[in-house]
C-alpha cells in the first residue's frame, strides 16, 4: 500500500481545481484517481450534460450518490467529487467512511477564468458570470465547509504547491480522533 491508507476526496465548486490537483497527487504519490463524474458518465453511457438534459438533475444526483457508495470500500484513491456532490448529507457520510475530505476553494473571479469556455457544466449554462458563481458559491458554502477535514485555497498557487500544502495538512491531522 502507498503513502495513504485512506482515500483523499477532493470537493469544492466547479473550477476549484479538483481534477488538476487529483492528477498531480496521483502522479506524486502513485495513487489511483477516480472522478465521480467519469463514473456516472461511464455507467450511463453518455456525457454529464446529456444526462442533465435527457433525465434532469435529480436523476444525475442519484447516479452521483451511487458512484460514491461504490467507492466506500476503496483505499488509497484520489476521488474527485462533482461540485454538487456534498450538498447531499448521505454522500458526505459515505465519503467519510474511507476518505479524508479536502475542500479546494477559489475566488469567484478565478473560477470564472477557469470555466468560462466550458460547455460541460450544465449548472452554469447561461450563467457564466461572476455574480451567479458568487451567489451559488454562497449558497453552498456551509455544506462545503461542514464536510471538509481541511480547506486549501488555490488562488494564485501552482498545482505542485497546492499538493504539497495539502499533503502537509493531511499529515498534521492524521493523528486525530477519526481512525479510517
Ligand atoms: C456540478 C459540478 C460538475 C458536475 C455537474 C454538476 C455542480 O462537476 O458534477 O455538472 O453541481 O457543481 P465539476 O465540479 O467537476 O465541474
Q: List how many beta strands DSSP finds.
A: 5
Order of helices and strands: EHEHHHEHEHHEH
Q: Can you list the strand order of the major beta sheet?
A: 2-3-1-4-5
Molecules bound to protein: shikimate-3-phosphate
Helix content: 40-55%
Q: Which structural class matches the secondary elements?
A: alpha/beta
C-alpha Rg, in Å?
A: 16 Å
Assign an overall shape.
globular
Helical segment count: 8
Q: Give unreliable regions as ranges.
A: none
The end-to-end span amounts to 14 Å
Mean pLDDT, as a whole number?
A: 95
β-strand amount? 5-15%
Describe the main β-sheet briefly: 5 strands, parallel
Give a short summary of the structure:
This protein is of the alpha/beta class and 180 residues long.
Task: Describe this entry's structure for a reader.
Helix 1 packs across helix 8. This protein is α/β, with parallel strands linked by helices and 180 residues long. A five-stranded parallel β-sheet has the order 2-3-1-4-5, with helices on both faces. It is built from eight helices and five strands. The protein is globular. The site of shikimate-3-phosphate has 10 residues, from loops.
Amino acid at each position: 500500500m502507498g503513502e495513504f491508507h485512506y482515500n483523499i476526496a477532493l470537493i469544492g465548486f466547479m473550477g476549484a481545481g479538483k481534477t488538476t490537483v487529483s492528477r498531480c497527487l496521483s502522479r506524486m504519490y502513485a495513487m489511483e484517481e477516480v472522478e465521480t463524474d467519469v463514473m456516472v458518465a461511464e455507467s450511463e453511457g453518455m456525457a454529464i450534460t446529456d444526462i442533465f438534459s435527457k433525465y434532469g438533475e435529480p436523476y444525475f444526483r442519484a447516479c452521483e450518490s451511487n458512484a460514491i457508495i461504490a467507492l466506500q470500500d476503496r483505499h488509497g484513491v484520489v476521488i474527485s467529487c462533482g461540485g454538487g456532490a456534498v450538498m447531499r448529507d448521505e454522500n458526505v457520510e459515505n465519503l467519510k467512511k474511507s476518505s479524508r475530505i479536502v475542500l479546494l476553494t477559489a475566488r469567484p473571479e478565478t473560477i470564472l477564468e477557469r470555466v468560462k469556455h466550458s460547455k460541460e457544466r450544465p449548472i452554469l449554462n447561461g450563467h457564466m458570470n461572476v455574480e451567479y458563481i458568487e451567489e451559488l458559491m454562497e449558497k453552498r458554502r456551509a455544506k462545503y465547509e461542514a464536510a471538509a477535514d481541511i480547506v486549501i485555497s488555490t488562488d494564485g498557487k501552482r498545482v505542485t504547491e497546492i499538493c504539497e500544502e495539502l499533503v502537509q495538512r493531511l499529515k498534521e491531522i492524521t493523528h486525530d480522533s477519526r481512525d479510517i
